[in-house]
Amino acid sequence: MIRASLVLFAAAATLPYTPAELEAIPLVAPRTGRSVTKIIFDGKTLNGWKGNPDWWSVEDGAIRGKSADKVPTSFLFTTEVYSDFRLTFRSKMVESDNHAGIAFWGEVAIKGDNKWYTQGPLVVFPKPSMWDYIEAKGLRVLKTTTEDLGSQHEWIQVEILAQGNRVRTALNGVQVMEWREADPKRIKAGPIGVQLHAWPGPQEVLYKDLLLESFPKENRLLTLLAR
Length: 227
Known about the structure:
The chain is mainly beta. It has a single domain (2-214), classed as Jelly Rolls. It is 7% helix and 44% strand. The chain is built from 2 helices and 18 strands. It has helices at residues 2-13, 19-23; strands spanning 37-39, 49-50, 56-59, 62-67, 74-82, 85-95, 100-103, 108-111, 114-118, 121-125, 129-132, 137-138, 142-143, 156-163, 166-171, 174-180, 190-196, 203-214. The strands form 3 sheets. Strands 1, 3, 4, 6, 13, 14, 15, 16 and 18 form a 9-stranded antiparallel β-sheet that branches. A 7-stranded antiparallel β-sheet has the order 2-5-17-7-10-11-12, with no helix packed on it. The longest helix is centred in the N-terminal third of the chain and has 12 residues, at 2-13.
């Protein structure tokens, strides 16, 4: 009975927010700084990035995370840190039914023998959701669509807009979710991390066309398509 209750509690903790529940979390104003738009992956090398070279490489203009065997959740991190940002890129799960993700507002952490873990929030795709690597639990988000916006092994376009404590995400030109960090102390400059998620067998994930705008000038998702 206790175990069943814990399972139900965990499931309830990740139920989507209603619009009213999200609006009840006060907005934190965006931080201010110089707005710079730059390519953070040159398509040829991993200059400006750090991670385990056994799992990360460059192939055909994309960052490739690949493992032939069981692997722990690991990240390739930018050497620079960011708080408020807009990140657009494309991603593809080449092999496995796993998922990909982008870590932010955290720090490089060690977990056992893995030196490339994180502590902070994560945006998950192609099935949109978010995860908290501080408390190891799913984060409640406002889901702004129930539309299926891509299959598991196709390229998808992703936009993540983090301003203040507000994070919005779009996939293939459609906003899919919004989240607010209720604890302002957790909002901090940290590296961007592309994820190779734990998996018991072979997997491969690609990330390319990574464009980042620090301290975004516009308070809106820019990749949205006319509907």
